[in-house]
């Protein structure tokens, strides 16, 4: 009788599982995802409960793994103990200079070990760190440093960085400027290296951080927007804790070696890459900048097990000539974002990468998605079940108005699987939107209200996603006045303002256009000249020189379009939709076009021949 009951019960269970799998096949995927993510979520909760800050994690790891290698850089190895001692020196120097807890210090340092011990040294004494993009120049650089009310600027090695700071020296007269070099003669700046040599490496008393709150700011990460200059997104101490367990999704351990070529001033490389390495006491192989030629060679040389990518990086690797050694390495996981469907399978198969974890996240976004299923092209899942845990919504988007569509009752219209929608995330205590520092208008622009019911508040990601029948998500496009190029977010307003400073330009309308074979969108500047002016080779040359001087390399427009008159909407706003649809095709555009010749650093006329060359990938942008 008992065996009969057990058999019947087992049959019912199997029938139920089979029925669920038949009617709702995606549920089993959800269960697997939830079980995988559960340990990550629990780890974060435990750290929050103990109030274990990221610097506490680093110090504990440095004590536990003192003599183990933490950083490999240019064939040099730096132990956890050495980096921790250097961080203690940084902290003492800053305290001696009168800097104190909750002050802000800007750091402008390339990818090198000094970036990390400077960051951790400032975290030891509760100082907020403004992570400055070292490609910035002129007003954009000055604006970023002052935008966080920085009291000091620590500048890394490199003549180009020092020259950029020298250019805006007058704007920084109220700041202490410290150079990580022994030779600062004639600059009027202080040598941070000499001060470090005189400082003690002994451990900083952790009690100095006792009254820090999890809502206090850990760092500022700059993101482009519609203001014309980079704006500082705030990264709280709580948010750094939330990012520390992400690599647990693929069982990252102390035996792993991460290859990091992405810039540390981005949250992805620092919060995702570095923080997960120190969490486990693993090794990070740091490179000053990405090199497609050296990439796999260095992975083999250092027995790398995990690589961190952006889509453009993968495209460069796929574009290299095939080698017999392409699949010979120890890499078991590639994690990153922006890997597009058209090269995904080739990248994974050619280089024999067992698992690709594509994710979606943004510096200021309260939500993130991860694809742990090796699903080609997807950046994660958002099923009805998963939305109970992370209650995001995807709504219809109006390309003409560049805003969410509303029904007759004024509510947004959710999309179903098989459709594309704008990602919105509810703002709550468990899903906070931390906003931008001293930028209430910019913060407010990212908020959308009365979405599903009166009084609700959502974060507007500005990103469009396609949802397939199994609720896998695919990133489709970025809306508004920001586009992504070369792994960087580019502000259209910043480019417009730079070009508009030329005395023969009346106005400039900037937008991103799709280019075959390229990740993101290439910048195009539609320029309307002042009345009576006509374009000349001299004008084009001036635009080229001006952009090179005023804009970082990734933000310089790749195309110019000389318009007879500006394209405006009925409300006299710059009209971009039709221009974006026309792209850079001279067959569709009856106006002068130019493309940026990267070899000559000059704009050249764009005709059918050069158009075909760009489209075929023979002319690089």
TrEMBL record:
It comes from the Eukaryota. Residues 494-573 form the AMP-binding enzyme C-terminal domain. Keywords: ATP-binding, Cell membrane, Fatty acid metabolism, Ligase, Lipid metabolism, Lipid transport, Membrane, Nucleotide-binding, Peroxisome, Transmembrane, Transmembrane helix, Transport. It is a multi-pass membrane protein. Its EC number is 6.2.1.3. GO terms for molecular function: ATP binding; long-chain fatty acid transmembrane transporter activity; long-chain fatty acid-CoA ligase activity. GO terms for cellular component: endoplasmic reticulum membrane; peroxisomal membrane; plasma membrane. Pfam families: AMP-binding (PF00501), AMP-binding_C (PF13193). It is found in: Cell membrane; Peroxisome membrane. It is an enzyme of class 6 (ligase). This is Very long-chain fatty acid transport protein.
């Amino acid at each position: 009788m008992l065996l009969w009951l057990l058999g019947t019960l087992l049959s019912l269970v199997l029938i139920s599982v089979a029925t669920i799998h038949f009617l709702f096949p995606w549920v089993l995927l959800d269960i697997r995802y939830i079980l995988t993510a559960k340990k990550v979520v629990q780890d974060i909760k435990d750290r929050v409960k103990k109030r274990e800050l990221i610097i506490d994690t680093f110090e504990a790891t440095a004590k536990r793994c003192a003599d183990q290698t933490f950083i490999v850089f240019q064939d040099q190895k730096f132990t956890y103990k050495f980096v921790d001692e250097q961080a203690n020196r940084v902290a003492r120097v800053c305290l001696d200079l009168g800097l104190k807890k909750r002050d802000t210090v800007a750091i402008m340092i390339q990818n090198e070990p000094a970036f990390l011990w400077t960051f951790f040294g400032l975290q030891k004494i509760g100082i907020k760190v403004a992570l400055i993009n070292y490609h910035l120049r002129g007003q954009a650089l000055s604006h970023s440093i002052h935008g966080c009310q920085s009291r000091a600027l620590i500048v890394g090695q490199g003549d180009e960085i020092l020259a950029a700071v020298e250019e805006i020296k007058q704007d920084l007269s109220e700041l202490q400027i410290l150079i990580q070099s022994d030779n600062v003669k004639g600059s009027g700046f202080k040598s941070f290296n000499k001060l470090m040599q005189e400082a003690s490496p002994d451990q900083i008393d952790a009690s100095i951080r006792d009254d820090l709150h999890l809502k206090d700011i850990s760092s500022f990460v700059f993101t482009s927007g519609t203001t014309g200059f980079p704006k500082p997104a705030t990264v709280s101490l709580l948010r750094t804790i939330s990012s520390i367990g992400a690599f647990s999704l693929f069982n990252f351990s102390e035996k792993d070696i991460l290859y990091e070529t992405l810039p540390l001033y981005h949250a992805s490389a620092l919060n995702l890459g570095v923080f997960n390495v120190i969490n486990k006491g693993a090794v990070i192989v740091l490179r000053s900048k990405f090199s497609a030629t050296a990439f796999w060679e260095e992975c083999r040389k250092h027995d790398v097990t995990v690589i961190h990518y952006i889509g453009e990086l993968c495209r460069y690797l796929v574009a290299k000539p095939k080698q017999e050694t392409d699949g010979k390495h120890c890499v078991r996981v590639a994690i990153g974002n922006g890997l597009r469907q058209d090269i995904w399978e080739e990248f994974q198969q050619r280089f024999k990468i067992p698992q690709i974890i594509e994710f979606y996240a943004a510096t200021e976004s309260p939500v993130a998605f991860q694809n742990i299923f090796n699903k080609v092209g997807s950046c994660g899942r958002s099923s009805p079940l998963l939305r109970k845990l992370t209650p995001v919504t995807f709504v219809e988007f109006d390309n003409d108005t560049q805003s969410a569509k509303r029904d007759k009752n004024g509510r947004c219209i959710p999309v179903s699987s098989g459709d594309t929608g704008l990602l919105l995330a509810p703002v709550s205590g468990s899903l906070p939107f931390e906003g931008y520092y001293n930028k209430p208008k910019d913060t407010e622009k990212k908020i959308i209200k009365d979405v599903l019911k009166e009084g609700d508040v959502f974060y507007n990601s500005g990103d469009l996603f396609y949802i397939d029948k199994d609720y896998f998500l695919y990133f489709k496009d970025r809306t508004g006045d920001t586009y992504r190029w070369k792994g960087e977010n580019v502000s259209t307003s910043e480019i417009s303002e730079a070009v508009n400073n030329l005395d023969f330009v009346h106005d400039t309308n900037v937008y991103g256009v799709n280019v075959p074979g390229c990740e993101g969108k290439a910048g195009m500047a539609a320029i309307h000249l002042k009345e009576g002016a006509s374009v000349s080779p001299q004008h084009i040359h001036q635009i080229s020189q001006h952009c090179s001087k005023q804009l970082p390399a990734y933000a310089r427009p790749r195309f110019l379009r000389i318009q007879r008159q500006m394209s405006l909407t009925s409300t006299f706003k710059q009209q971009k939709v039709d221009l974006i649809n026309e792209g850079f095709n001279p067959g569709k555009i009856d106006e002068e076009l130019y493309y940026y010749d990267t070899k000559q650093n000059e704009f050249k006329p764009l005709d059918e021949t050069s158009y075909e060359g760009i489209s075929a990938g023979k002319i690089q942008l």
